[in-house]
Amino acid sequence: MIGRVAALAKRFTKPMPQVGQTPADVVFSENKWQLLRYRARPEGLAWKTPVLLIPSLINRHYVLDLMKGKSFVEWLVGQGFDVYCIDWGTPSSEDRFLTFEDIADRYIARALRVTCRTAGAEKAHTLGYCLGGTLAAIHAAVHPERIASLTLLATPIAFHDEGMLSLWTRTKAFDVKALVDATGNVPWQILQSAFQMLRPTAPASKAVSMLDRAWDDEFLDGFFALETWGNDNVSFPGASYRKYIQELYQADGLLKGTFSLGPHPVRLESIKVPTHVVTFEHDAIVPWQSAAVLMDHIGATDKHRLHLAGGHVGAVISKKAAKGLWPAMANFWSKRDAASPQAAALPEPSAKSGVPSQASVPNVAS
Length: 366
Fold this sequence. Notes:
Rossmann fold; eight-stranded mixed β-sheet; 15 helices; globular
C-alpha cells in the first residue's frame, strides 16, 4: 500500500494531461457560444457531408475530444470527415433569460447553416450527445431542412422513468420556479451534486482505482483527463432550465406530444431523416429505455438502434469505443454520404469490438 501511495504521489508531480487538443478554428460565435471547425487531415477530406456535434448544455464539449488517443473528434478527422462542434461556452448573469427556443431553435439553426455554408454542403450529419441529443431531436422534428441524418447518443426522450433524476425532479419538493427565481442561472454546483447523487460511492471507488493502478501512467492520464472534464461544469440558463424541467421531466411533453418550440408543436413522428439511436445498458444518467423509445415514435423508415454495454461516459471514450462505437457511427454516416474520389470504405466493426452487426441488434428497423 505504501508503494502504491508513493507511486501515485509521484504522478501528481507531473503535468496533468491536456484536454481538447485537436486543432480547430472558430468559424462562428454569438453571445457565449461558438462553432468550432476541426482542421482536416493532411490528405484532405474523404466525405462531402459535414458532421455537426451537439454536446450537452451542462458539460463541456471536449468530452468528445478528451485527449490524444481518446478523442472521438481526433478519430473522425483521421477518417476524413469534416467535423464541427458547438461549444456552448459559459453563461453569465444576463443569460438567465435565455430561452429554450433561443438554444434549440435559433442557435442550432445557425450552427447548421454555418456548418453547411462553410463545408459547401446542403445538409449536415448531426450527432447529439445526452441533452444535446434532445435538443437535436427537437430541432429535427421542426426544422429538418439542413439535417442529412440524426445520431442520438445516450439521449433522453421519455422523461418519466425509474431513473433517479426523473424521480427527483418529479417530487413535489422540487420547485423549479423557486430555484430559478432565487438563482437566475442554475448553479453548476447544484447540477453536479445531482449527478453525484446517482453514484454516491463514486469518490471512494475512484480512489481505490487510482491506488490499484498507481503505476499505470496511461490509465492515470485518462483518469485525470476525465476528472478534469467532469469537474469543469457550467451553469444552466434559468429560463431554459425552467422549461426543460417543467415541460420535459415533469410533464414528459416530448413523448406525450405536448411540447412545443415557440409556436411549433414538436411531434416525434415528424422526424423522417435517417436516424441512429445509441443506448447503453448501464447508463445511470439516461436509462436506455428512455432513449430507445424514440424508435417507436419517429416517422423515419431508415432508423437503426445500437445497444451496447457500458455507461453514459465511459462507453463513449473507452478503447472499446474506438474499436466499436466510433466506427459504427462513422459507418452510418458514410453509407448515407456522397463520397469524394479519395474516399475509402470504412471497415465494419466486428463482434470482437463489442458492437454487434445491425441485423443482430434488437428493435432495429431497416
